[in-house]
Amino acid sequence: MPIRKSLQPDLPAILGIVNQAAQRYKGAIPADRWHEPYMAADELSREIAAGVVFWVMEKEDGKIAGVMGIQDKTEVALVRHAYVAPAAQRSGVGTALLRHVTALAEKPILIGTWASATWAVDFYRRNGFRVVSHADKEHLLRKYWSIPARQIETSVVLADGRWKRDRA
To answer: Cα–Cα–Cα angle for 22, 26, 27, nearest 5°?
Structure first.
């Protein structure tokens, strides 16, 4: 399945995948952080305006199976909004997208996700990322993300080997 940079006409499909896949968070993340839709169209537009570049994987029928963004933050790159359509989960789509976007960056990669989303944390661990310390998490989320304090409390940050090596 080919991976390509998303285009303007892909945005409705991207929103559909994000909001379908994010249903798994309902009941897993703190209730005060859950909202529907999980991502609205204006939020997606703001993320793109803030420099998140979205990549999509297409199925043979041309429909999008998964989406993942990457955002350059000068010293690091952030993997953002990684979602796979529920029907395509556990088929290698997420791994292929993760490998693709991480290969685009020559700098350390960081990923933020909900601490209680154990399936997501486990996915990133299986793909070579490690959870950073609580102190590093607090610092990194405040420095590179624009999220409320409550989300910082309930999130984790994972880093690739380049981040660890650059800190040594």
So the answer is: 150
pLDDT digits (tens, 9 = 90+) for 25-72: 999 998 999 999 999 999 999 999 999 999 999 988 989 999 999 999
CB hemisphere CA count around 137 (13 angstroms): 19
Is 127:119 a contact under the CB 8 Å cutoff?
no
**Right CATH for 3-167 from 3.40.630.30, 3.40.50.280, 3.90.230.10, 3.40.50.970:** 3.40.630.30
Q: What global pTM score does this model have?
A: 0.94
Residue 110 tokens, joined: 């960081």
Burial of 18 (0-12, 13-18, 19+ CB in 10 A): buried
C-alpha closest to that of 17 among 71, 59, 50: 59
For residue 48, give the nearest of 26, 27, 79, 70 by alpha carbon.
Answer: 70
Domain ranges of the chain: 3-167
Question: Does 9 sit behind a cis peptide bond, omega within 30 degrees of 0 on the bond before it?
Answer: no
Q: Give the length of the chain.
A: 168
Give just the sign of the alpha carbon dihedral 102, 108, 114, 115: positive
